[in-house]
UniProtKB/TrEMBL annotation:
Residues 614-708 form the Galactose oxidase-like Early set domain. It comes from the Bacteria. This is Galactose oxidase-like domain-containing protein. Residues 1-20, 495-514 are annotated as: Disordered. Keywords: Signal. It comes from Streptomyces ehimensis. Residues 266-594 form the Glyoxal oxidase N-terminal domain. Pfam families: Glyoxal_oxid_N, GO-like_E_set. The lineage of its organism: Bacteria, Bacillati, Actinomycetota, Actinomycetes, Kitasatosporales. Residues 1-38 form the signal peptide.
Length: 825
């Protein structure tokens, strides 16, 4: 007896026993809605969405066909076997019930995101299979995945008449309900007898004549966004994809002073498989902390918000020293030792040896931190300041520090709040030599606030793309500029990239087309399994004027594909977008200057998921990988590419650890047994958990399998090296290239030691004379706003600020001409 496993099977059990009469009633009901009256045309025109439709690929564990499972309920005896009595090929599935008191038994496509066909709400699909049967008590049964409630029974579509020889059964589904993203289906037997099935097919019922690959309309080239039927329970600013496939959403106080004063700090864990959201007790205000995933999969979270700015201007935001580890297994926080000082908005970069290095942010007294911090993988603690190399440089807030293949760090010029660093705005930092060398070429370097930089696929190419940005203090229109740099060059420098595509912008009067040089800040950029980069979301001005635009950057051609589907939800300040293990993209957050927060969750389905069935990784021989090793996987059909993608840990348009690592393939004679050659260089792929994707010739990816790269022994020295006079074990050395080895800019030695860098309390671009701490009245209004009371108040009204309290007596923006203590009333 096979126990009932999936939740969906329990759902059907509550419906009671199914009989021929019940099936007949169901068909009658279906016909009354016009769904089953007419015989559908043979489903042969388009792409078959079924994984392993001929049942030829088998699992080694139980000899069941890959992506198929047995299920059911009740008091009955049954067998499910793989047989050679096939319709075509060499294998078929035979389900036999020899005794039945109640319930049924089924063979179905697995309730797994890598196996279950993706569907589009409001579409209908033609399902077909070949079968032979000795019982009239069998039917085609369908389950659906609801994005909020998880897997659940949907309907029985067609009773299968007894047939001694193979015959084809075809049926069309009802309209797919809203909130459904996948279905599974197969055959259920609810009486004694046997059914043997083979050659399954599922196609969009609207597919045209032969030759078409996709019939999803605009989604074939633009993809599609769906706003989920549930809300984000926390005002999250930080998003981390965990190695169990869940997503950690961290809010802290969520930029809500009332929550801060009450000591109410929140996080949530979202499970994309079930749609469940679980709120997690959170010990301190992790609002605007730093975070990174350690090599063991725990999340290191550093600093956060000690205090909001004072209304009298005596201090700005303040950071604290506290640091915590989030463990995905118990889903709880554990405190580490303190950092050396506070860092509100710090960077966090994982190094090739598993250590974490952090720069920048604001100290406990609101000044800028000039202390570099290092978390030791070996000692599992923050090191004393004296054990960390110091240049005493102020790198700003959330400086984008990307690990290079030789262990140096590339500061890309992306940051948050204010100008870039002195000099060219971008540089290479050699930690071991403790020297900084400027990199020229970054365009408009002091207007790249909340731009985003990504190490382009694959990491082996060592190319970085920096996109968009603005300046919260002067508040110009955000930029369309992009810049590219090849860190393999002897003397690397930024060169102009293609301009960001333009979309529509809502400046308070509804969306209108962008014009001229209008671009966006708060850019989100996501590395995709097909080797491209999705950029989405953003705004035209500081915390205002959302831009609705998305495009796909192709590193192979250095071009954007404009005009993708756009997230219908504004995504500006405190928003993030990130890749899920099933190849879709999730977007959360929006925190405009009026202090509100958008709690809608959006999911983007890229065009590649409309191209038919996706390849399936049927096995990974070992999910614990070492550097310089060869790892074997099997797939259900030929693929052209495999890669590792590091799961996201993103906030404020910043995720310097995001990377796509190519896995060169050695393909076996069968075309589906593939050896993957793992880099020997931990700087290309720092140790930790990765998503392993296989991608076919159409750019369609598998669902990710999780693998762990590296470990304590993987970071030891190679044979021939000496550690305290002893030769260590035979192990390949990392291959490090002499890239960026002839830089012409003069390297800068450390500055004289000092305690901090002065930072104005207006660094966040907000005038604190008005409203609450989380309300951001611009220090500088957009240039199109007349510098008058009426002009400024009209802008604030159009952006839903409402009446604002005047904090104190000063009214620098002249928003309270009648001196009643209320602005724009």
């Amino acid at each position: 007896m096979t126990p009932l496993r999936p939740r969906a099977r329990r759902t059907q059990r509550r419906s009671g026993k199914r009989s021929r009469t019940a099936a007949a009633l169901l068909l009658t009901a279906g016909a009354s809605f016009g769904l089953l009256l007419a015989a559908p045309a043979p489903a042969t025109a388009g792409s078959n969405l079924v994984v392993n439709p001929g049942l030829e690929s088998l699992r080694a564990s139980d000899a069941m066909p890959t992506c198929w499972e047995k299920a059911g309920w009740g008091d009955n005896d049954f067998t499910v076997t793989t047989t050679d009595q096939s319709h075509s090929g060499g294998k078929a599935l035979a389900l036999s019930v020899t005794r039945r008191v109640s319930g049924d038994r089924k063979v179905l496509m697995a309730e797994d995101s890598s196996c279950a066909p993706s569907v589009t709400p409001s579409h209908q699909y033609d399902l077909s299979l070949w079968y032979k049967s000795t019982t009239p008590d069998s039917s085609v049964t369908v389950f659906r995945h609801d994005v909020k409630a998880g897997w659940q029974y949907w309907t029985d579509l067609k009773t299968l008449p007894v047939s001694a020889g193979y015959t084809r059964a075809t049926v069309r589904t009802p309209v797919v309900p809203p909130g459904t993203d996948q279905i599974t289906w197969g055959v259920s037997v609810y009486g004694t007898g046997s059914v043997t099935t083979d050659d399954y097919d599922m196609e969009d019922a609207t597919q045209p004549a032969a030759g078409a690959v996709c019939t999803a309309g605009d989604a074939c080239v633009k993809g599609s966004w769906a706003v989920m039927p549930f809300k984000n329970p926390v005002r999250s600013m930080h998003s981390v994809v965990l190695h169990n496939g869940k997503v950690l959403l961290v809010a802290g106080s969520g930029n809500d002073p009332a929550m801060f004063k009450a000591g109410t700090f929140t996080s949530a864990v979202y499970d994309p498989k079930t749609g469940a959201m679980k709120t997690i007790p959170t010990p301190v205000d992790m609002f605007c902390a730093g975070h990174v995933q350690l090599s063991d999969g725990r999340v290191l979270i550093m600093s956060g918000n000690k205090a909001y700015p004072a209304a009298d201007g005596s201090h700005g935001y303040e950071g604290f020293k506290d640091s915590y580890l989030f463990d995905p297994s118990p889903e709880s926080y554990v405190k580490t030792n303190d950092m050396n000082e506070g860092h509100w908005y710090p960077s966090a970069t994982l190094l090739g040896n598993g250590d974490v290095i952090s720069f920048g942010g604001l100290k406990e007294d609101s000044t800028g931190s000039v202390t570099a911090e290092k978390f030791s993988q070996a000692q599992q603690k923050w090191l004393p300041r004296t054990e960390v190399n110091q240049t005493w440089s102020y790198w700003g807030l959330y400086p984008s520090m990307i690990l290079m293949q030789d262990g140096r760090l590339f500061y890309s010029g992306s940051h948050v709040f204010g100008n870039g660093t002195p000099g060219t705005g971008a540089s290479v930092y050699d930690y071991d030599a403790n020297k900084i060398t400027d990199v020229p070429g970054l365009q408009d370097k002091d207007n790249r606030d909340q731009s985003m930089s990504v190490l382009l696929p694959p990491a082996q190419d060592q190319r970085v793309l920096t996109m968009g940005g603005g300046q919260v203090n002067t508040n110009p229109e955000a930029s369309r500029l992009t810049d590219l740099i090849d860190l393999k060059a002897p003397n690397p420098r930024y060169t102009p990239g293609p301009l960001l595509p333009q979309g529509t912008v809502d400046q308070g009067q509804g969306p209108k087309p962008e014009t001229g040089a209008q671009g966006k800040m708060y850019v989100s950029a996501v590395l995709m399994p097909d080797g491209k980069v999705l950029e989405t979301g953003g705004g035209l001005h500081d915390r205002a004027d959302p831009v609705f635009e998305a495009s796909m950057f192709n590193p192979a051609t250095n071009t954007f594909q404009p005009g993708l589907a756009t997230d219908p939800i504004p995504r500006t300040y405190h928003s993030s977008a990130f890749l899920l293990p099933d190849g879709r993209v999730m977007a959360v957050g929006d925190n405009p200057g009026n202090g509100t927060f958008d709690d809608h969750v959006s999911i983007y389905t890229p065009p590649y998921l409309y191209k038919g069935a996706r390849p399936q990784i049927t096995s990974v021989a070992n999910n614990r990988w070492q550097y310089a090793s060869t790892q074997r996987m099997t797939v259900d059909r030929p693929v052209v590419k495999a890669e590792l993608i590091r799961p996201a840990a993103v906030t404020h348009s910043s995720d310097p650890n995001q990377r796509f690592v190519d896995l060169p393939m050695t393909v076996g004679a069968d075309g589906t047994t593939i050896d993957l050659n793992v880099t020997s260089n931990p700087n290309l792929a720092p140790p930790g958990w990765y998503m392993l994707f296989a991608v076919d010739a159409d750019g369609v990816p598998s669902v990710a399998s999780w693998v762990h790269l590296g470990g304590p022994d993987a970071l030891e020295a190679p044979k021939g090296a000496e550690v305290k006079g002893a030769e260590v074990k035979d192990k390949a050395a990392p291959m490090v290239h002499d890239f960026a080895g002839k830089m012409t800019e003069k390297a800068k030695a450390p500055e004289p030691a000092h305690t901090s860098h002065p930072v104005p309390v207006t660094i966040s671009g907000c005038d604190r004379h008005y409203g609450a701490e989380n309300v951001c009245v611009p220090t500088a209004f957009p240039k199109t706003v007349p510098p008058t009371t009426a002009g400024r108040c009209a802008w604030l009204k159009a952006h839903d600020y409402g009446v604002l309290k005047l904090n104190g007596r000063d009214d620098p923006l002249k928003l309270d001409p009648d001196r009643n203590g209320r602005a724009c009333d």
